[in-house]
Structures are given as structure tokens and as C-alpha cells.
Amino acid sequence: MANDDPGSAEHARATSDAAAQSESLLLDDAAIRRALMRIAHEIIEKNEDLSRLYLVGIPNGGVPLSRQLQRNLKEIAGVDSLIGVLDTTLYRDDLVSSGARPRLRRTEMPSAVDERIVILVDDVASTGRTIRAAMDALMDFGRPRAVQVAALVDRGHRELPIKIDYVGKNVPTQHGDRVQMRGPEDALEVVLVKGGSTAGAAEPRAQRAASERST
Amino acid sequence: MLGRGLLGIEDLDRDDIEKILDTAMKMKEIGERDVKKVPTLRGRTIINLFFEPSTRTRTSFEIAGKRLSADVVNFSPSSSSLTKSESILDTAKTLDAMDPDAVVIRHKVAGVPKRIADELNAPVINAGDGAHEHPTQALLDMMTVLEEKGRLDGLTVTIIGDIAHSRVARSNIYGFRKMGAEVRVAGPPTMLPSHVETLGVKAFTSLREALDGADVVMALRIQTERLSGAAFPTVREYSSTFGLDRQKMRFAKDDAIVMHPGPVNRGVELSHDLADRRPSVILDQVRNGVALRMAVLYLLAGRRKPAV
After folding, report:
1. What is the pTM of this model?
2. Could you give the percent of chain B with pLDDT greater than 90?
3. How many beta carbons lie within 10 A of that of residue B3, not counting itself?
């Protein structure tokens, strides 16, 4: 059954459709590493009680990023933060209207979230709907002391009052554009795909899910 | 192809089955949470329409629907008051007018769910029809085997019992064959359907031969009232020849698992000892049943007939 991480065949297939359109590199692997190191410093600066940190990756992209953040926090501050994976699909607000049902990703929340400082980690933030869904999902696991959000790329077009606490890179985009993270975990990259989709401001995640739907 | 409903495994292809099993594996995590509920089908209505009594399957569907936040309504007309097909259709149409998002149907007559599905807007899920199919049972069986063995392709699955009258056997034969497993059936000659080989299975009247090299051994529930009829052996005869115990399991592979759709007639299909412990996985089947039915409801509830 399918692998959750970018670099899987599924992911590669989803991105190869886009190769024909105009595509530009936003972040290469080194830039991603630098961004995640800076975010780790910001997390340390912002939070007093680092022993409460719980990094929760949103599949697919957020999962490898949360792992790298965990390593960075260990390296910089000697903190052993908890880590989890939280799929938001069953909490999406467009399931009823879309009719089609996207493939589920895995959820693994091995530790209780009560009294933890949870940092939701995603690759690309946009409308804020995924973060909204992730917060609802998180609350089903308990009552965190605080919830913060880290995103490697913020492409704007927010539709909900959601603030991203830690941003790797702000990228102004147009409605039809897509921002995608791809590649194996040790050589990730983020690209901007211009035009192509006329679907409007739909979040990249939703579009990716759409391309994965079996017919 | 997985269309608007789920009437039988015969209609599915391998991709459909993989998709349902993959979804079910992910759903299982919800059952392990403190709060066993997600909002996915909030505001959706599921009707359990059971013309034939079945506490287990109905409860499993009910829990599955509720864990997805759907409103689940149980409707169990007494089968005596509903014998004519006209009145069954009337009942179904009446319920459909209440605009449910899915209707789960069990009926003692093969083909009734299909007949009803043709009339309804809501997708229909077959929860067992006569000796025809019981698709969610076969899917939860495949899910359990996949968890245990890590694959279905290339396994040998032996199904023992009244194959001729079993919808569980039929659905499992379709399912495991489509997923690349070898399926064998075993039972007294009167319990094996004629031309069973046309389903792509090997038939055995010797349990020992049927078990030789099996990875999965599935015992079916025997309707004891059917035994001792002229053409059938007595209960004691059946259990000594086809009832499973640890002794007989030695013929199967060392790591073979034992399955049963429940409820078990202890001492008939399975020895007491085998019913309760490994290698039997009967309670895992029950647990997986909820996750599997959540997957089916997630994939199907709310699918409408295309507007004409």
C-alpha cells in the first residue's frame, strides 16, 4: 500500500503532470535545510518550556520536515521533542461538496497531546483550511497547552483567520499556481508551477489529493 | 468497479479491493483513540434495513456509521409481515423518500439488495443476501489476512463447511481469487456446490488434503438445523470429519491462521480451545469489521445517481 512520504511513486506521478507547465525552483535541499534550522532557532526563542514540544507533521510533506525539525532541536538545544503524524483528510470541509473521497493518509499520535505545545508542520500553507482541519483533529486527541504552526512555504491566499507562526519562505503566488515539495527525504526541493490549473485558489494539498483519486 | 454501491465482490476489481482495504487500515487508528469519532459524515443519514435478524453485522455497521458522525437509523421489519417483493420495494422507496445517504440491506433472498438498489437514489450496501454475497464480511476477512500475512497474493486459503449455502464463502472466493490467492473449499459432498470449480477453486472432500500447505483456514458456521437432514451428516459426524482442532491444524502450515465469521458453534466447526486462542483471529475479524465498514461508508455514503 502507498507510502506516505514524498518521493514515493504516487508523489512523483502527481508532480510529473506538472512538468510540462512552466516550473521554477523556489527552494533546493540546502535552502530547505537552512530554513528548517532557522525555524528551529525561532521555536527555541519563542517557547520557554521546551520539554513540552510535540512536533506533528501533516502528511505528506509535513512528515519529513517535522523529523528534520526534531533533529535540529536536538542538535541546537539538546531537546527531545515528541513527534507525531496527523492526517487531516477526515476533517476536511470539502468532502461533502466534492463527492469524491480522497485517499487517507496515516495518523500516528503515539503520545498524549494534553499540556503539550504542539507545533503543526506542513510543507505549503495557503488558504488555511488544512490547518483548520488539523486543529480540529488535534483536539480529538486531547487539550494541548498551545498550538503553533510551521510551514516551509507560505503562498498566501488565506481564507480563514489562521496565522503561521514559523515560515520558511513567503512566496507571492497567483490563483492558478501550485507550490509543490517533492523528492526523497535527503534531497527535497520546492517548486512553483505557474498557470496550468484553472481550478482557482484551491490549496495544493487538495489538488494533490484530487490527482490521487482513483477513478 | 466500485460504483455507487457495494452489492457484491464479484462486481469489484483488484484496484477497488485494494482501495477499500487501504482505507480500512487507516480507519482502524480511529478505533484506538480515546475519542473514537471523526466528523467526516456529519449530517449524513444511514439506514440499516435488516429484513433478516443479525445483531452482529447490524451493530458493526451502526458503530461504523457513528464513528464517522453519521446519524444511523435501524429499521428491521419483521420478515413475516414483508414477504411479497412489492411490499419490500414499497418499504425501500418509503425510506428513500426520507433522503438517506446510504442504505445497508440484509435479506434472506439473494438479489433483493440489487433489486432495491435499482429503485433508490441512495447507494446500497449489501449486508448479506441469501446464499449470494456478503461483501463486507469478505473484505474484513481479506483485511485480517493482509494484516497477519502482509500480502494476499500467492497465499493458500482453505474454506471449510457448507460452501453451497454460504454467501460468506462465495464472497471470499471472489475476493481472494481476485487478489491472487489460491482458494480451496472442503466439506461433505452434499455441501459442495456442483461445478464449484467454475469459480476457480479446488474442491476437496478430504480435510487433510485441503489443509495441506494452507496459510489461512476459514471455518464457516454450520446451520445445525440443516445437519441431520437426509442428505447431510449428523453434527457429530460433521465435527469429527470437518471440525477443526489443533490436531487437524497440523496438516496446515505451521503459521496458518484460523478464521470464522461468527458466531461459532463451539465443538462443531472449531474446538473450544481453538475458538479462543491463536492461531484463531476471530476477534481481530470483528475489530477489523468496524474499520472496514467505516471505509465502505466513507467511500460510498452520499454518492447520488447522476442527474439525468
Report:
1. 0.89
2. 81
3. 13
